[in-house]
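For practice. Any example?
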Amino acid sequence: MSASARLSAVTKQLGPASGSHPKGLLAGEVSIVTGAAQGIGKATALLFAQEGSKVVVSDLDEKKAQLVVDEIKKNGGEAIAVSGDVTSDGFAKKLIDETVKAFGSINHIINNAGFTFDKMLHTTSDDVFRLILEVHCVAPFRIVREAAPYMRGKKPEDLAKNKSIVNVSSTSGLHGNVGQANYATAKAGVVGFTKTIAKEWGAFGVRANTVAFGYITTRLTAAKELGEAITLPNGEKVALGIPGRGKGAQTDGDRVPDIPLGRPGSPEEAAKAVLFLASPLASYISGHTLEVTGGRGI
């Protein structure tokens, strides 16, 4: 397909510049969202469904994932839950196989699953360092690789589809962060991985972008004293949050001095950034890292 023909196909897909999307920005498309049982992932799954996408809600917590599916269906959407540990052998194949079995195709992969396991560099064990790399780098790699046969078509109808991969990074990956040698390294890797996908899969009409979040109100940014934790498949509990952060810092009413907008972002605001990158509104954006920080770090 020539460049002009591809442009014509994309323009037809987008519709008139002044037109709207009465059935949603992702109408009829199929989206996989990992880590979708809570926080940014849940907000993304709900928003994508609201915009017409069929959603695969993937999470380690099977019960919470099903609750998100139930909410989507209650609101008239289509969704399935695929639970499991993203780092386990065979999970990527399970996720892609169940997606295709349920919906027949894949348009978008949102690699959002992840957590922090903070320690100072000199006290971080090899196992803790490797675990965070497995979650944030190896797992997305396996999922994207497994989806290759369903996203790399070169027929005109394949090239005309809206297809994207959005990998979630963090400002820790862009600037580093005290106590997060493992997380910062992994999230920096996400950026390089995404740019490589953009270069290798662009010829198939697949866009790949990174979204780097700053301070978003999730359990990863709550006060550690609140006791939030994630239980790993081996039964180990990993405490989440930031030590010393007061409970009040989670409310939008409290001003955060180093953020120009003066407050943390909500999971719903974070999800809107992901939606933008996956939607036809970003049809000519690929290989980009979108910082969603309220202006922090500028």
